[in-house]
Amino acid sequence: MFEMNDTFVEESVKTKDKVQNKILMGLCIALAIICLGASLFKIASIVTGILFIVFIVLAYMLMGNKNIEYEYDYTNGSLEIAKIINNEKRKHLLTVESDAVKLIAAEGVNEYLKYDNVKMKIYDCSGDLEEAKKYVLVAHDEKKNVDFKVYFNPSEKLIAAMKKYNKQAIYE
Predict the structure, then answer these.
(1) What is the DSSP string of 151-164?
(2) Strands 78-85 and 68-75
(3) How far apart (Å, rounded) are the C-alpha atoms in residues 148 and 158?
(4) Tell me, what DSSP letter sits at residue 171?
(5) Which residues sit opposite 13 in a β-bridge?
(6) Which sign, positive or negative, has the C-alpha torsion 149, 155, 160, 164?
(7) Most Cβ neighbours (<10 Å): which of 30, 43, 82, 131?
(8) What pTM, to 2 d.p., does this model score?
(9) By percentage, how much of the chain surpasses pLDDT 70?
(10) pLDDT at residue 73, as a whole number
(11) What is the spatial distance between Cα 143 and Cα 137, in angstroms, rounded to a whole number?
(12) 130, 147, 126, 125: which is closest to 138 by C-alpha?
């Protein structure tokens, strides 16, 4: 159970629909219509019929992944990030403990740029919203012995909670 001095912050960031997803969905629908027309006029009807089904399924899958948000749960120095798709499916992405954190820096700060060209695994858990401030979190995975980056949009409340456990690693 939580004690009085426990730290808990929970917040979610909604992503905006990306232009390339809209273009891909439109392309799939257009190709499905072309394949339907070709199969109706008996032009390679079996192949175009199969392609019609494939393009409809792809368009449906692209429509299903439009409503995506990331949930950040911070509890006593442990940050958990989950991806929520269409308010139905929840996928746990990663957990970062405070002792694994090397850096948390706001976009535009010199420390943010230190790891900009360093090759490591990247988790983009940001909302891609212009008004939200983007941060990078660099941490070390002890099991795999590698560093990784997480791009995210924490609120001031979440940054304040993280400062309790990582004061020297946060640059705003």
Answers:
(1) EE---HHHHHHHHH
(2) antiparallel
(3) 20
(4) E
(5) 70
(6) negative
(7) 82
(8) 0.74
(9) 93
(10) 93
(11) 18
(12) 147
